[in-house]
Amino acid sequence: MSNSLSVVIGKTSIAGIKPENEDFLGSYIPSIETDDVAQLESKGIAVAIADGMSGSDGGKEASQVSVNQFLSDYYGTPESWTVKQAATKILTALNTWLYSQGQQKYGTAKGMVTTFSAVVIKSQTAHLFHVGDSRIYRLRDTDLVQLTRDHRVWITNERDYLSRAMGIDTHLEIDYRASSVQEGDIFLLTTDGVHDFVGDKEIQEILDANKDDLQIASEKLVKAAEINESNDNISAQILRVDHLPEPDKTEFYEQLTQLPFPPDLKAGNVMDGYKIIRELNASSRSQVYLAEDIKFDKEGESSRKVVIKTPSVNFEDDPSYIDLFLHEEWVAKRLQSPHLIKVCNIDRKRTFLYTVVEYVQGQSLKQWMSDNPKPSLIQVRGTINQISRGLRAMHRLEMIHQDLKPDNILLDEFNTLKIIDFGSTKIAGLAEIKSVIEHNEIVGTANYSAPEYFKGESGTNRSDIYSLGVIAYEMLTGKLPYGEISVERAAKKKFNYISAKQYNPMVPDWIDVCLQKAVHPKPEKRYGLLSEFLSDFSKPNQALLDRSNSQPLIERNPIAFWRAVALAQFIVILVLVFRLWG
Known about the structure:
By secondary structure, this protein is of the alpha+beta class.
């Protein structure tokens, strides 16, 4: 990035006429001068404000805990998570804790209750989270807009109550909003001690007059509320966006090409302490070698076998390709599952661009399927369960594999399955960061890729479930549910499901309808969760079976329907011919 995200913050909070201040506010800006620079890009900048409910015994503690824990925990969430996913999980957990503590300490559901509002600015987007009647405003040029709505219900002109707040109930509904940010935008967070007593016009005038000194602006807003006889704690926090991270093509390309591509490697060659044993696989995009790490020394072992993947020199000047190649190692380092290939830490200086992963002694699932063309349902179910465990570990981190196929699944000597090749993996958190590289091409293999990819749509976890369903179907039948698919014709292809029973009459009806749902052409009609698919693949779902049987034949089995129509037409023609000649 040619420019890092840069903001200025001003904040003021006082008790006002009340004996103590139950408001709390805070912010966190990762420093670009320390190791936090990576967090500045992956997590952004966060500001938050909270107002402990006056009728709550632990309102002050609730507001402080909410702001401090949110700012602390947010930066501890996985980099692969979206801002929404990270913040929602944190606030949901905080709400449960506040409710529980309120019950334990004060014996009431209103023991620890607070409002909460936060702004997270990541890349070029502002993410807003809001519960209660604190507010978030945005001043852009001369236009002041309230971005949140008050969760407040008025009983009379003088009496009201909070309809939503942190810690008031076990269920929490959070308002979320995302909007683009421009340089110069000012975000204002206030508690009701400010905005109930200072009108929008006066707020805008104070901000306009003090744009260059936000600390003075916050102090003047608080002072204006005092002058207007505010009867509550008074707090204001202001954030101005000075610089947004703009992708720079030259800088980005220089970062990608810091290391040269390695030359063609032969058996016996040594590269950075890795001795090549033999080539395992080669394609137009990469080469894969079995190697010996001769520098490895652990518990008396003098070496270990590893797998080295090198980029193809055909793409030496292709930033998109290099980005995906580096991306694969980034993903693997963050995954922990016995069913996902592990990346090896490289404890030495690299002289070339390559990745090193564990060596799995065994074969691919593709080869196993070729050697075992008629596996039992128990074997298929065991295979699908193992693959699902690996996928679930990815989905929990908001990662989608996007290229799941038998070739990318290895079976080791202990019959443990491991998913490999994360070069196509979609990472929700990184997708929020604006980049000069756009990967719009179909990254998977056509026969196993969900139909939405061919329409230019974004993949979801349902897309991985589609690929898993295709693998299960192929293991049971030796065929594909929609036949062979070419990338060129996929966008116009009619995806008419071919019943698994047509290829393998031994497949139970309930398994067939389960597979049909898993590989449905429309994502919304597929399983939403892996657990749902596994449940229906393990035992009959009578409701699903009944729905399938109630469908017209043309929807349930289009091929059987048109065969029946053709047969009926043939019979009619025979009858007509018989009558004509008779």
